[in-house]
Design goal:
alpha/beta; two-stranded antiparallel sheet; about 15% strand; 5-stranded parallel beta sheet; 7 strands; about 250 residues
Amino acid sequence: MKISVISLFPKMFEPILNYGIIRQGIKKKLLKLNFWNPKDFTKYKKYRTDEAIYGGGGIILRPEPLIEAICAAKKELNNIQTIYLSPQGKVINITYINSLLKKDIILVCGRYKGIDERVIKHYIDEEVSIGDYILSGGELPAMIIIDIITRLIPGVLNNIQSNRTDSFYNNGFLDCPNYTRPKNIKYLQDIPPILLSGNHKKIKEWRLKHSLGNTWLKRPDLLKNKKLTDTEIYLLNNFKKKFLNYE
């Protein structure tokens, strides 16, 4: 998968290229990242990449170098989705990220008060956000999107099943509680015996039950308007009864 990033500060991305799954994806040649700096598309070295907003209120990125950077990036890609990271965009989720997996994408990072509206109207396919708050620029949201995408590219993770039980990916539910060695830790709750039983059918059922329970406790909004199977309804009700000490 090819991802191009347009940013005034491409060096901000160096840490994510050298660690973790993004490095792994690049090393396996399953992910290719390119960076385009609007500063490289100015007519003169001292030519500004930002300018005061008409009417006052701060500065935004100038349109010309930004447009040229987007056009240069597009020449190397196919089936392109050009995304502007913006607090005004729709908030991303796993369904949205999955829709990007078969595309080459361009992530446009704004700075200051954003970018010229004409660029958004004519060169951006959609605006997306990682949450209802303001950051100093689009670089951090771009890193987050790259990380999420990379986890889902087939072959990047050594265990192909490991992301199938992640929160949100697992039918839209949160993950269940997980435990590891040592088996016993002083003063802490013991590991549920079922997880040590070796009975994979029972373990799978326990995990689904507690995945549903975790979602009910922590993110009940995820269960709204979601059609649960008969098994899921039974397991969730069973979890609720035990949690509320009804039995």
